[in-house]
Amino acid sequence: MMKALCYVAKHDVRVEDVPEPVIVSPHDAIVRVTSTAICGSDLHLYDGFVPSMMRGDILGHEFMGEIVEVGAEVRKLAVGDRVVVPFPIACGRCWYCKEDLWSLCDNTNPNAWMAEAMWGHSPAGLFGYSHLLGGYAGGQAEYVRVPFADVGPIKIEDDALADEQVLFLSDIFPTGYMAAEQCEIQPGQVVAVWGCGPVGQFAIQSAYLLGAERVIAIDRFAPRLALAERHRAEVLDYERVDVMEALRDLTGGRGPDACIDAVGLEAHGHGIGAAYDAVATRVFLESDRPIALREAILACRKGGVVSLAGVYGGIVDKIPMGAAFNKALQLRMGQTHVHRYLRPLLDRIEAGDIVPADIVTHRLPLSDGPRAYEIFRDKTDECIKVVLKPGTS
Amino acid sequence: MEPMSYDVTSSERPRSAQRIASPVERHRHDVGVNVGNGERAASAAAGATLLAMGLVRRGLVGGALGLAGSALLLRGATGHCAVYRRLAKNTANDQPMPREIVLSRSVTIDAAPQAIRSLLREPRAARALPFAEVLEADGDSVRVEARLPAGRRLAWTSRIEEREDSIAWRSEPEGPFDHELRLDFEAAPGNRGTQVDATLTLRPPAGAAGAAVAQWLRGLGVRSMGAALARLKQLCELGEVATTQNQPTGARSRLKTLLLTAQETE
Q1: If we measure between CA atoms, which residue out of A357, A333, A5, A8 comes closest to residue A163?
Q2: Do B248 and A107 touch (CB under 8 A)?
Q3: Spatial contact of A317 and A273, defined as CB atoms under 8 Å apart
Q4: Which of B124, B237, B257 to mutate against chain A (most A CBs within 10 Å)?
Q5: Could you give the angle at the alpha carbon of B234 between the alpha carbons of B229 and B240, nearest 5°?
Q6: Closest Cα partner for A256 from A329, A197, A155?
Q7: Which of residues 95-124 of A touch B (CB under 8 A)?
Q8: Is A9 on the interface with B (CB under 8 A)?
Q9: How far apart (Å, rounded) are the C-alpha atoms in residues A30 and A140?
Q10: Which of A155, A252, A266, B246 has the most C-beta neighbours closer than 10 Å?
Q11: How far apart are CA A147 and CA A40, in angstroms?
Q12: Using an 8 Å Cβ cutoff, are A124 and A336 in contact?
């Protein structure tokens, strides 16, 4: 038996004793998890925004550890290897994988029909992220089964790199990076980032890595704004300033060249739009609250890019499509093609261009998982990012 | 979506009273059909759902659900509603129920048609249909057994017909499950392999009543076909089927486990 953090019900996760995972298919590996993080998108599960969660589902899609067993046809990994595992599960063989669109893998969602019913087609299966996206057991556990192990996990050869330096390659560093890359930043450009949570912090730093002249970051929590400032962003507290006006003034009336929504479906805000979303989601007229997205579309300069890193799952309402159309904006989005970024971003970390570990505010044993979810959701104790350590107490 | 096949194909369909009625059609009028086809299918669907819920729950509530479900199922199957008779209401139209149900789904597989064909002749192809087992394969004849709910089994023999760009499994006419499954192969544009168009033609037993139930199961059937084709694609492209079987979970709730198991093993 092992300990695993399981979903029980909305706002109720528990550490339970569950059987250890076994090799099911010849391309599987079993990883002993050394570090695992709680992602902002885990809060969407925790807050009941994602359908098809079941009592007993093991959570977690940001994890790393040591290979303890490999299937008969695993060639690139061996027992003892230290690996970081991407959150999308990709087969490496289908048309989408070959096109470098790993999160759209055609073959890894055993429950594709559920996703097809909601979205028309199914993306890749994800670790620990509802039955809609495969129903795979997640990594907030002592051990986890990793399918298609030759395709996803990246080996970390340098023992001098602490877990916290490389753990975020599993999701949020590539996610922030892809959001910035989608902006196709040109020299001299200004990028605005909504949300200074972990993904927002990586989006800010990635925008600079990709050559942005200035980055303006928007949030309301002082510790997050302070960290964004440390990452060289100019910051706006949306509870103190009118974001639209401020962005116009800070960009000589042009508006940011690119706008990144690093918030997603559970955005907070104020004003008529936010009130509308509060009511509409209650009565199921919409499922997601696209407050940051609306503002990003309105703020963006003509011909600019609005890039979505925050997760959306369902239906949104009152999207200013007229603004997007008449300003000829590009909207770019998607679950991160993590596999694409593992090597280049590990190189960046090894070169010292970025210090991913600086977002970690809380380190807790896995057994404290339920409390960790609360702290992270309520952002108490200046929480920005929680790392859970299985096997410690 | 595929149109339903009617036994009368003329656009100027004669009124049913003027047609030569088959034994089933005569029966249809004997019991006094006063429920329309769409409503019959819905009635059968709701009835079967309630019945299933009743069986899961048991007890007094379960019994009531089961009773209500049975009544609705019967209403759908016979097309007769006692309440409508009292109210002198009739929603039945003159359209005959279809005798044949045609389901279709397509998938694009990154492999040559020949590779897909040869895999289909291997025993492991049965992994695409987790509820079925190949009992015997002999040249162009194959005997298949399907596991049904409540431990029941259904076996039939199909003849395989291969053409240049298709393969079909036709059940023997006197068998218990009258159907034809056909896969058409076509090169996918943009070097994406082969487009496989699957068509399943079902001739359900019990004539119109069976067709009403089959019509209700249509969505389920198309979904199952999609899942089977996805598994065939995985077998061709990866040599394995993506699965979450035997993985650990925490304590499940009972009802949900039942529902999910049904969904995920389709």
Answers
A1: A357
A2: no
A3: no
A4: B237
A5: 130
A6: A329
A7: 95, 106-114, 116
A8: no
A9: 14
A10: A266
A11: 24
A12: no
Two tokens, residue A263 = 């918030």
| CB-CB contact of A370 with A15 (8 Å) | yes
Q: At a CB cut-off of 8 Å and minimum separation 6, what does A65 contact?
A: A31, A32, A33, A34, A35, A82, A83, A85, A139, A144
Neighbours of A28 (CB within 10 A): 22
C-alpha–C-alpha distance, residues A190 and A43, integer Å: 30
**Tokens in use for A269?**
């805000």
Compute φ and ψ for A209, nearest 5 degrees: -60, -30
Residue B241: its chain A contacts at CB < 8 A? 25, 110
Asked if B164 and B157 touch (Cβ cutoff 8 Å), the reply is no
Amino acid found at B141: S
Token pair for A17: 């004793």
Using only C-alpha atoms, chain A has a radius of gyration, in whole angstroms, of: 20
User: Which residues are paired to A365 by β-bridges?
Assistant: A389
d(CA A273, CA A10): 26
Using an 8 Å Cβ cutoff, are A286 and A277 in contact? yes
Per-residue pLDDT tens digits of chain B, which is 266 residues long = 444 443 433 334 334 434 444 444 444 444 577 888 778 888 888 888 888 888 877 777 888 888 888 888 888 888 888 888 777 778 776 566 667 889 999 999 999 999 999 999 888 888 898 788 888 888 899 999 988 888 888 899 999 999 999 999 999 988 888 899 999 999 999 999 999 999 999 887 766 667 777 777 788 888 889 999 999 999 999 999 999 999 999 998 876 666 655 555 44
- H or E element that contains A156: none
Q: How far, in Å, CA of A110 to CA of A93, rounded?
A: 16
Q: What are phi and psi of A347, to 5 degrees?
A: -60, -40
Could you tell me what percentage of chain A is helix, strand and coil, using 3-state DSSP and rounding each to the nearest 5?
Answer: 35, 20, 45
Q: What is the dihedral of CA A268, A273, A279, A282, to 10 degrees?
A: -50
List chain B residues with CB under 8 Å of A9: none
Residue B199 CB neighbour total at 10 angstroms = 18
Could you tell me the pTM of the whole model?
A: 0.83
